[in-house]
Design goal:
CATH topology of one domain: Neuraminidase
Helix content: under 10%
Radius of gyration: 26 Å
Distance between the termini: 12 Å
Number of strands: 52
CATH architecture of one domain: 6 Propeller
Number of helices: 0
Largest sheet: 5 strands, mixed
CATH class of one domain: Mainly Beta
Shape: globular
Length: 673
């Protein structure tokens, strides 16, 4: 058997990167992604149970991917696939990768130019065709998804102005089914993208035909049968079967799975379906098999690794194996990353994902402060020396520009109402005789009013912050040392929400997010204003609708990095772990709004970026996590109104695995030796 999968990480490197002081022209951007640093996904398989063993099924789980990178959305191609002729003879060998000791990863796709930085996801193969989702082309419309179906290197099969996700190639290879959307907007926060099932010719994308107006994640039973999921009128996610006429009109449509539990992301085998499920009796997403003849459900993963979420199953061509991805939970050779180096499309700028939120750099660029909600931490810019400053709930962080051991933050509940008691504080990083940090926390605001998002002026004399003391969130400036008890003035005013403010390094501007254009909504635009209250102007987006949050200036104050929903979603939301804003990506623009550039491409929520004047060498940095912290992320909240517990992989059954390491590629094939 052969396995195709996606790698969004290369090998984990053990050496720490160098930190280059400012003034070299090289800089670094660090951002956070909700939950992503704890995923540690790998591809696993289990045997399909025989009819006689279904009641007491407990197969041996096999790890197929490298145990180091982030690997997900696998696919078993047929062994006679013509695509294998493109691989060098030296890479081909007889045998099954499930039966051998060594495993090699061979590139099937090496994108060039701007496509190198895009997402290439959900691969499937038929004959000579490698079909996948690509985000390498700008949709040209703000908030419209960049996701489109591509073939080979970058051949686009999706028409311009259309969003396609979740491709599946028919058994004959002639047709491809997708979940298609007019825009890829995610507005209901219930998992649905309002996609329809569309079929087109695999070779060129022609003859597009709508099969059903409501559905996602299609898979073929045969060339005249499609299965897909959708949220039913009774509130349960279920699998449906469409029997098709020759013109792809629907001859019959049947609900295959009953109400009472959620079933989604189906895949087909000979006489059965496999799917992810969320049952009321479990807090975890598991893979189950449905015998289409008897209607019997068989739990596949719950008996093998009960305390883990399992995602997006797929079936081998001979229907003997079921594949999926889950967090490896510290198994294999992989390590959690304090800083994950990302490919940067900007020359002389290194790009990192941090395992934390709201990062900020010390004045000399050698330390990073961040929060874990709860908990305030400091570590060296190379990822070493992580230390907890305080276990309390702080957000965000901003270093004093002149004092290397003072951090500003806000202390109290995050995401709370205007009247909640949240205060701006300064935190002096004093050190006790035992070497432990003994912070001195000084409150700078009084009287509640949700005071948050402090940012000091470059001369260290003033702090701008957001406060709801007037009944609306507006911006204020106060004394940096003694706070509002010494001096305070209001910078903005109005019946809207001005928030997430930051002072430019040259002192000329304060950037902030605001819904002042449509105050009754959660649409936030990015504005800048002079500290004296003049010169207010909008930076982004051009339209009033959208979300632009958590801006940070470049060291020369000429550009701004921020999180935004410009590019829509890049995958069906239900196919991923929880992410409230799965369309959040990191963008850079000039302060006049021109020169917009997308930096990240993924299906998760990126945000809270910071731009450092120092350059951190683009190298992955490991961190040590205890067993209880591995795989600590949530499944989608919309499955259960009571909320879901986090996955704890410490109780996972240790899988058998195949030795070897992966190369830092995007789409690869695993071969046996």
């Amino acid at each position: 058997m052969l396995l195709f999968a996606l790698l969004l990480l290369g090998d984990v490197l053990t050496s720490l990167g160098d930190v280059v002081p400012g003034g070299t022209g090289k800089t670094s951007i660090v951002f956070s992604t909700v939950g992503r640093s704890r995923y540690e996904f790998d591809i696993f398989t289990l045997p399909v149970p025989s009819s006689s063993s279904r009641n007491d099924y407990s197969g041996e789980e096999v790890l197929l991917s490298d145990g180091q990178s982030i690997n997900y959305n696998g696919f078993f191609p047929g062994e006679d696939s013509a695509l294998l002729s493109y691989l060098p003879d030296s890479e081909l060998a007889e045998g099954s990768s499930l039966e051998v000791k060594n495993r090699r990863s061979v590139a099937l796709l090496r994108a060039e130019g701007e496509a190198r930085f895009s997402q290439r996801d959900r691969p499937c193969v038929s004959g000579e065709h490698l079909i996948y989702v690509s985000t390498h082309e700008d949709s040209g419309v703000p908030r419209k998804s960049w996701a489109a179906i591509a073939s080979g290197e970058t051949k686009r099969l999706t028409p311009r102005g259309v969003v396609d996700l979740s491709p599946s190639v028919s058994p004959s290879g002639e047709w491809t089914a997708v979940a298609s959307s007019a825009d890829g907007l995610y507005t209901d926060f219930n998992g649905e993208l309002h996609t329809r099932i569309v079929v087109f010719r695999t070779v060129d994308g022609s003859e597009r035909t709508i099969v059903d107006d409501h559905g996602g994640w299609p898979c073929w039973g045969d060339d005249s049968t499609l299965y897909f999921h959708r949220k039913s009128d009774d509130g349960w996610w279920s699998i449906f079967r469409a029997t098709l006429n020759r013109d792809f009109s629907v001859a019959s449509l049947d609900r295959v799975t009953p109400p009472g539990f959620h079933t989604f992301t189906p895949a087909t085998g000979k006489g059965f379906l496999v799917m992810a499920t969320r049952r009321p009796t479990s807090d975890y997403r598991h893979i189950e098999l449905l015998d289409l003849a008897s209607g019997e459900f068989v739990e596949i993963t719950r008996r093998v690794s009960p305390l883990a979420h399992h995602f997006n199953p797929f079936v081998s061509p001979d229907s003997s194996r079921i594949g999926y991805h889950r967090c490896r939970g510290g198994r294999g050779n992989g390590a959690a990353l304090a800083l994950e180096s990302m490919q940067s499309p900007l020359e002389d700028i290194s790009l990192f994902r941090i395992d934390g939120h709201f990062p900020s750099f010390s004045p000399d660029g050698r330390r990073i402060a961040f929060v874990e909600l709860p908990g305030l931490f400091v570590m060296n810019a190379d990822g070493s020396g992580k230390r907890q400053v305080s276990p309390g709930n702080f957000f965000p962080t901003a270093w004093h520009p002149k004092k290397k051991d003072v951090i500003y933050s806000s202390q109290g509940p995050d995401f709370s109402s205007i009247g909640t008691e949240v205060d701006v504080v300064s935190i002096a990083l004093a050190q006790g005789e035992d070497g432990a940090l003994s912070p001195i926390i000084k409150k700078l605001t009084n009287g509640g009013g949700n005071n948050a998002f402090p940012s000091p002026s470059p001369d260290g004399k003033w702090v701008v912050f957001r406060s709801g003391r007037s009944g609306h969130n507006n911006l204020y400036i106060m004394d940096a040392e003694e706070g509002e008890s010494k001096s305070i003035r209001q910078l903005t005013s109005g019946p809207w929400n001005d928030t997430m403010c930051i002072w430019s390094p040259d002192g000329e501007w304060i950037a902030f997010s605001s819904n002042r254009e449509i105050p009754t909504t959660a649409n936030y635009s990015l504005f800048i204003i002079h500290p004296n209250g003049t010169g207010l102007r909008k930076v982004a987006p051009r339209e009033p609708e959208g979300k632009v949050n958590h801006a940070a200036f470049s060291p020369d104050s000429r550009r701004i990095v921020f999180g935004a929903d410009y590019a829509g979603v890049s995958a069906e939301v239900i196919s991923t772990p929880n992410s409230v804003l799965p369309y959040g990506e990191i963008f850079v623009a000039n302060i006049d709004g021109t020169g917009l550039r997308r930096l990240t491409h993924n299906a998760y929520e990126d945000g809270t970026p910071v731009w450092s004047p120092t350059f951190v060498d683009p190298v992955d940095v490991k961190e040590a996590l205890d067993g209880g912290s591995r795989c600590k992320f949530d499944d989608q909240f919309f499955f259960d109104a009571k909320g879901l517990s986090v996955a704890d992989a410490t109780c996972l059954k240790k899988p058998s695995r195949i030795e070897g390491r992966a190369s830092p590629l995007d789409v690869f094939v695993v071969l046996g030796e």
